[in-house]
Amino acid sequence: MIAIIDYDAGNLRSVEKALLSIGEQAVITRDADVLRKADKVILPGVGAFGVAMEKLHQYGLVDVIKEVAVSGKPFLGICLGLQLMFDSSDESEGVEGLKILPGKIRLIPDSEGLKIPHMGWNSLNIRPGAKLFQGIEDPAYVYFVHSFYLDAENKADVAATTEYGTLIDASVEHENIFACQFHPEKSGDTGILILRNFAAL
């Protein structure tokens, strides 16, 4: 069973629907015991970094998320979920993230001809051997919606990058911990295969 963390941060149902479409059992929950018992856990999200961290604290989810992340079970952050896994964000100065992995979330710089937010399909440069991208040809096209991007401290954790005004760390893998800045649940067949790969871990 795959648990999807519910902290009022959007895109929960679309992630659930995508998992159900590939035959996985999925539950949307903020129950700590359910999260501990799940085979895998997903932290999705759309919205603002500071508000999201406030909600995670409000619902008592911060400690159980950190517990799950170090437990060895597969853990996946999606979009805002990826951003929350790191130290801090330019979007919400002074707000600490979950600090599961080291790195900072930065504002995509202004660049002539590029609109912010970065919204739509973009290509990935995939690191050979990345577990989430098994069976996916490089470059792969996936769907992004974001104004802030990950600058990971440990570049060895970066599983895929994209270019949008700057080099963006678009996906990370560290032991049992995975994250995608893009939305696999909105990325067609490529995204479905990414979710299948996660479910098969």
Provide a descriptive summary of the structure in words.
With 201 residues, this protein is an alpha/beta fold. The protein is built from 6 helices and 12 strands. The protein has helices at 12-21, 32-37, 49-58, 62-70, 80-84, 188-199; strands at 2-5, 26-29, 40-43, 75-78, 88-89, 103-107, 118-126, 140-146, 148-152, 158-163, 167-174, 177-180. A 9-stranded mixed sheet has the order 2-1-3-4-12-11-10-7-8. The radius of gyration is 15 Å and the shape is globular.
The CATH class is identified as Alpha Beta
Q: Which architecture does the CATH hierarchy give at level 2?
A: 3-Layer(aba) Sandwich
Radius of gyration: 15 Å
Number of helices: 6
Q: Low-confidence spans: pLDDT under 50, at least 5 residues? A: none
CATH topology: Rossmann fold
Mean pLDDT: 97
Main β-sheet description: 9 strands, mixed
Q: Write the H/E string, N to C.
A: EHEHEHHEHEEEEEEEEH
Shape: globular
Helix vs. strand class = alpha/beta
Count of distinct structural domains: 1
Our measurement of the CA-to-CA distance between the termini, rounded to an integer number of angstroms, reads 12 Å
- Helix amount: 25-40%
Content of β-strand: 25-35%
Instruction: Give me the side-by-side strand order of the main sheet.
Output: 2-1-3-4-12-11-10-7-8
